[in-house]
């Protein structure tokens, strides 16, 4: 659903924004607010509206229902599945101006935020309270909490702390029908039937707007220590994980290929972790709370070397060194970005990761021997990022078309392994046509039914996640 430019009058909409929200229609604003980090689709929104309150969001939704106008909720626009793209004359509703931290309760360890709070702002606020917001990823400096919740963002600490869903104890939402709902009120326990909060988490803005969230905070971790290990055989990443996990409570277990490191080195001048060059690397993190923990970690490392699972390794001796080692992993995405990567974000049960990766790699490299393939990901969660880089001389649309051709082969493998076509990036527009490889037709039909309940006129983020019937 979308409206036409002639039917839309910015002043009428602005007149509904009684708390100071504003409407933007300048071409630069439309271009900036109409896209996310996917860059596959050209932005073409009708206008951008920046509300200041939940009531203003409600007024916008009511107006959109009357006008049959499609709305696209927009946070930090760092998504990788085109969930926040407005390419078809939709109205972008950006939460940037609803960016206040509203309340904090130390006894509850709860912080109440507006949806436009930037992830890093929440992390810093938690730190100032002597607490910790553990959901973390490379785009934390730009991504906004509402978007994180709408996409159930994961990141680099999921192995210990779970995904965004695990930290949301309350939501205020405006449904596509224009109702304001307060969901769960910050309660840890609340067994009163359907938990509607969970539908909005990961709902990709297809049911309504998240305007406020009550987030749980954790105790601060102490002396986070990082090891980077070099491996010759992918299957050994799992042996190493099981060894370390049996004795230490890992806060991260990440993986990247030698090709990924080469891009980080070239782009960001981050040095290699050690001289030995290996095809695969694992990065693990744990809290070195005592000398005993450090000795245990060293003993585990020696065991892995004796078993010939690990070829070389390095362990951080300070916070600064730990941060440097993290850069090897966290800067991969930005380092390959200039090569216009086609991204797949896959997951399987962790025990099956090595055979799954090898099978997909051989299919993609056989199909496209000239394309560079970069692997990295949150291997401790069974989550692999497959990035195919665009050859410099190939046109963007032609490249994406060829990558989509190989997708059917990749997703057939995903289906056979009972994995997911989107582990943490969401479905948006990019993965919508592949949803059936992970969810059954019956499940998708139920999802469509749920959407109808919350968004009877289909104005909320149409074309994302599922198609309306
Ligand atoms: C990451 O793990 O670095 C992010 O999910 C971004 C990406 O996959 O490029
Ligand atoms: Zn990731």
Task: Describe the protein in words.
This protein is an alpha+beta fold and about 475 residues long. The protein has helices at about 10-15, 25-35, 55-65, 120-130, 145-150, 160, 195-200, 235-245, 260-270, 290-305, 320-330, 330-335, 355-365, 395-415, 440-455; strands spanning about 20-25, 45-50, 70-75, 90-95, 100-105, 110-115, 130, 170-175, 180-185, 210-215, 220, 225-230, 250-255, 280-285, 310-315, 340-345, 370-380, 385-390. It has 4 domains: about 5-95, Uridine Diphospho-n-acetylenolpyruvylglucosamine Reductase, domain 2; about 100-220, Uridine Diphospho-n-acetylenolpyruvylglucosamine Reductase, domain 3; about 225-335, Alpha-Beta Plaits (2-Layer Sandwich), CATH 3.30.70.2190; about 340-440, Alpha-Beta Plaits (2-Layer Sandwich). It has a 7-stranded antiparallel β-sheet with strand order 15-12-14-13-17-18-16, sandwiched between helices. α8 (about 235-245) runs antiparallel to α10 and α13 (about 355-365) runs antiparallel to α14 (about 395-415). Zinc ion (ZN) binds near residues 378 and 385. Zinc ion binds near residues 378 and 385.
């Amino acid at each position: 659903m979308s409206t036409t430019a002639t039917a839309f009058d910015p002043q009428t909409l602005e007149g509904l924004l009684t708390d100071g929200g504003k409407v933007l229609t300048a071409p630069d604003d439309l271009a900036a607010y109409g896209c996310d980090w996917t860059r596959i689709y050209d932005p073409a929104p009708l206008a951008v509206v920046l509300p200041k309150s939940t009531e203003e969001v409600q007024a916008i939704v009511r107006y959109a229902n009357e006008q049959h106008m499609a709305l696209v909720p927009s946070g930090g626009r760092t998504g990788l599945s085109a969930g926040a793209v407005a390419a078809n004359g939709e109205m972008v509703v950006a939460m940037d101006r609803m960016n206040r931290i509203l309340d904090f309760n130390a006894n509850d360890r709860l912080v109440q935020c507006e949806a436009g709070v930037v992830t890093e702002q929440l992390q810093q606020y938690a730190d100032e309270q002597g607490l910790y917001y553990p959901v973390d990823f490379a785009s934390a400096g730009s991504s906004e909490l509402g978007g994180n919740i709408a996409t159930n963002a994961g990141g680099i600490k999921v192995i210990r702390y779970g995904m965004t869903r695990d930290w949301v104890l309350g939501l205020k939402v405006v449904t596509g029908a224009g109702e304001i709902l307060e969901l769960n009120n910050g309660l840890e326990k609340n067994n009163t039937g359907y938990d509607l909060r969970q539908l909005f988490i990961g709902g990709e803005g297809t049911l309504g707007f998240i305007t406020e969230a009550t987030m749980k905070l954790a105790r601060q971790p102490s002396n986070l220590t990082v090891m980077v290990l070099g491996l010759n055989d992918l299957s050994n990443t799992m042996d190493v994980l099981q060894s370390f996990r049996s004795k230490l409570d890992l806060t991260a277990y990440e993986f990247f290929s030698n090709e990924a490191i080469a891009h980080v080195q070239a782009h960001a001048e981050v040095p290699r972790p050690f001289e030995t060059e290996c095809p695969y690397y694992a990065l693990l993190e744990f809290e070195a709370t005592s000398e005993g923990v450090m000795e245990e970690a060293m003993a585990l490392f020696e065991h892995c070397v004796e078993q010939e699972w690990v070829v070389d390794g390095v362990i951080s001796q300070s916070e600064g060194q730990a941060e440097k080692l993290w850069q090897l992993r966290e800067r991969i995405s930005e380092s390959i970005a200039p090569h216009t990567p086609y991204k797949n974000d896959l997951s399987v049960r962790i025990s099956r990761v090595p055979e799954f990766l090898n099978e997909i790699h051989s299919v993609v490299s056989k199909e496209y021997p000239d394309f560079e393939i970069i692997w990295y990901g949150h291997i401790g969660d069974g989550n692999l990022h497959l990035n195919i880089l665009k050859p410099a001389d190939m046109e963007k649309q032609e490249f994406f078309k060829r990558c989509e051709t190989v997708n059917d082969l990749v997703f057939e493998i995903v289906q056979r392994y009972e994995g997911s076509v989107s582990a943490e990036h969401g479905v948006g527009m990019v993965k919508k046509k592949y949803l059936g490889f992970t969810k059954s037709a019956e499940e998708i039909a139920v999802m469509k039914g749920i959407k109808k309940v919350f968004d009877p006129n289909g104005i909320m983020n149409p074309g994302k996640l599922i198609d309306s019937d």
